[in-house]
Write a structure and sequence with these properties.
Blueprint (H helix, E strand, L loop, with lengths): L4 E7 L5 H12 L3 E2 L10 E7 L7 E7 L9 H12 L3 E3 L13 E5 L5 E6 L10 E8 L1 E6 L2 E8 L3 E5 L12 H20 L8
Length: 203
C-alpha cells in the first residue's frame, strides 16, 4: 500500500471547516473529503484538530492519494492559506533547509506574504503549539551554484540580504540555468521585502 502524501499546518484562528475544505480543494486541484462532509472517491481528506491551549488553536492535516500530484509545496500553500484566512500559519521548514531536521523549528507565514523561521516554546503546559517570538528570524532562500551557495533572506527589521560564500574567494560565473533560478528567487524575495517594508541590502 502506497503511503499517503501529507501536509501539516497550525493556524492562530479557527475558520469555518467548509472554508478550509474549499481552500484546499482549490489549492490541490482535487476533491477534499471531511468528517462532516464525506465525499465518495475524493482523493484528499482534511482533518481539523482544535486545541484548548497554545497560540495556534487549530491543527490542520491534509492527506491525499500520491497518484494525485500537488503542484504547490507546503510553503506555497501556507502563504496562500495565511492570506486566505488572514491568519498566521505555521508549517514545517522547507525540504533541504538548515535545521529542517530539528522538530522544534518551524516556518511561519504571515498574511503579508513574509516567511520566518521560529522556535517552539519548550513547555508541557499546553496541548497546542506555542512559539518563541524572540527566536523569529527571516527565512533564507538558497540557490546552489557550482562554487558554493547563494543565500538570500529577509530580516523584518533590517532588510533584504544576499550573501555568496565562494570557497575560492574568486568571482562566480553562473550558468544560464543558475542565473534564471537566482533571478526568480530575487524577484520573490524582493516582493516579500517590499510587502513588509524592508530595505534592500547586499552583504
Amino acid at each position: 500500500m502506497r503511503k499517503l502524501s501529507e501536509m501539516h499546518f497550525y493556524l492562530d484562528k479557527i475558520p469555518e471547516p467548509e472554508e478550509l475544505a474549499v481552500f484546499f480543494s482549490d489549492a490541490l486541484s482535487m476533491a477534499v473529503s471531511t468528517l462532516d462532509d464525506p465525499i465518495d472517491e475524493a482523493p484528499a481528506f482534511l482533518q481539523l484538530t482544535p486545541y484548548e491551549s497554545g497560540s495556534f488553536p487549530l491543527g490542520v492535516n491534509i492527506a491525499w492519494n500520491p497518484s494525485h500530484a500537488s503542484h504547490m509545496s507546503h510553503i506555497e500553500i501556507a502563504v496562500r492559506l495565511s492570506r486566505f484566512c488572514n491568519a498566521q500559519v505555521v508549517t514545517d521548514l522547507p525540504d533541504g533547509y538548515p535545521r529542517k531536521a530539528d522538530p522544534f523549528r518551524w516556518c511561519i507565514a504571515e498574511p503579508d506574504g513574509s516567511l520566518s523561521e521560529i522556535s517552539e516554546c519548550m513547555t508541557d503546559e499546553k496541548d497546542g503549539l506555542e512559539l518563541d517570538e524572540t527566536s523569529k528570524k527571516g527565512m533564507a532562500e538558497n540557490v546552489e551554484v557550482a562554487h558554493g551557495e547563494i543565500r538570500i533572506w529577509i530580516e523584518p527589521d533590517s532588510g533584504f540580504f544576499i550573501k555568496m560564500p565562494a570557497e575560492s574567494g574568486d568571482s562566480v560565473r553562473l550558468s544560464g540555468q543558475e542565473a534564471r533560478k537566482l533571478a526568480d528567487v530575487l524577484v520573490t524575495m524582493a516582493d516579500r521585502a517590499e510587502k513588509i517594508g524592508g530595505a534592500i541590502e547586499h552583504v
